[in-house]
Write a structure and sequence with these properties.
Layout: E1 3-5, E2 16-18, E3 29-39, H1 41-47, E4 62-70, E5 82-86, E6 106-110, E7 114-116, H2 123-143, E8 151-154, H3 160-171, E9 175-180, H4 185-190, E10 195-198, H5 204-211, E11 216-221, H6 224-234, E12 235-243, H7 256-261, E13 265-268, H8 277-289, E14 297-302, H9 306-315, E15 321-325
């Protein structure tokens, strides 16, 4: 098989196209012929050594493809099945997760990391919704307790997590506000946002307050270091913010009195702490099949261009997801 690996932490130059030994699935695992691979910002953070992984490592979490072999204890999948999913490298204790990542022509994955990909959903869309879809689901419904009629604000609504969260919140019946670059407003509106604001607008706070005079119940924020006081100021009483990224953020609350007065809650989260990855993926699969959820694909690169794909997610404003193809 062909795979991207790195043997030391560092910049994008450590990524190499190699031909490691082919993996054989264990008793509870399947072997997948890769059709599409999702590229996420956390792939670059991991490459830089943020989690101090055991090396060498194949990066990547998201995959969509066709099962070609299955372990003897696998009950949900068999060769020929179309699947999508996401593979953790770390579990909740911080120990090493699965054996390899997904930047490869073949991927081994436990069956509880996967769900069936609907026949009418492309492999590209399947590879784009795993990690970000679970992140959005967990933020909105597990931690955010989002209910129909609630007011939700999604920062970065044109990005990977944001563009799926916008759709999920809309489908759930929430009043969905969003921030995005002005050039992406029409896309975010198409995905279900009731109102979209330019995050660079100097009047952003007053605009959100005008749109939600009773305050925002739930905020999804990928840049807590930049927006935490803003989030507090626009929140409703009992409101909360779920931090869906920002590993290097240093959030500073400048007016703690406002947060205290609102019983405001700040909830950091890690998607890979989700105990039932397959159950969430199955819910996302149902929404994909019903046409209530999709993924925007910004760009697609061949596997050997993994360095450029990671450069794009690190340095550019991406609408939806960037993919690799074997």
């Amino acid at each position: 098989m062909r795979a991207i690996r790195y043997h030391e932490f560092g910049d994008r130059s450590v990524l190499r196209l190699e031909e490691p030994d082919r993996l054989t699935p264990g008793t509870d695992e399947v072997l997948i012929e890769t059709k599409a691979i999702g590229v996420n910002p956390c792939d670059a953070l991991r490459r830089q050594g943020l989690w101090d992984d055991e090396l060498p490592l194949i990066p990547g979490s998201d995959v969509a493809g066709v099962v070609t072999d299955a372990g003897k204890h696998v009950t949900d999948f068999e060769p020929g099945d179309r699947v999508f999913g996401t593979i953790p490298h770390l579990n909740v204790s911080g120990e090493r997760g699965d054996r390899q990542g997904t930047y490869a022509t073949e991927v081994v994955a436990r069956e509880d990391r996967l769900a069936a990909l609907p026949d009418d959903t492309s492999f590209d869309v399947g590879a784009a919704v795993g990690l970000v879809g679970i992140t959005a689901w967990r933020a909105l419904f597990h931690f955010g307790d989002l209910e129909p009629g609630d007011c939700c604000l999604i920062h970065g609504a044109s990005g990977g997590v944001g563009h799926l969260a916008t759709q999920l919140a809309s489908v759930a019946g929430a009043r969905t506000l969003a921030t995005a670059a002005r050039r992406n407003h029409s896309t975010v509106e198409r995905l279900g946002a009731d109102a979209v604001f330019d995050y660079a607008d100097e009047e952003l706070k007053s605009e959100v307050r005008d749109a939600a005079p009773d305050g925002v119940d739930l905020i999804l924020d990928h840049r807590l270091g930049e927006y935490i006081q803003f989030d507090i100021d626009v929140a409703a009483y009992g409101g909360s913010v779920v931090a869906i990224g920002g590993n290097y953020d240093q959030p500073q609350i400048t007016d703690l009195t406002a947060a205290i007065g609102k019983d405001f809650t700040i909830q950091p989260m890690d998607m890979f702490n989700e105990p039932d990855i397959d159950s969430v993926l199955e819910r996302l699969s149902t929404l994909l099949s019903g046409g209530e959820l999709t993924a925007e694909i910004d760009r697609v690169f061949p596997l050997e261009d993994a360095r450029e794909a990671q450069r794009v997610v690190e340095e550019e404003s991406v609408v939806g997801k960037v993919l690799l193809k074997p």
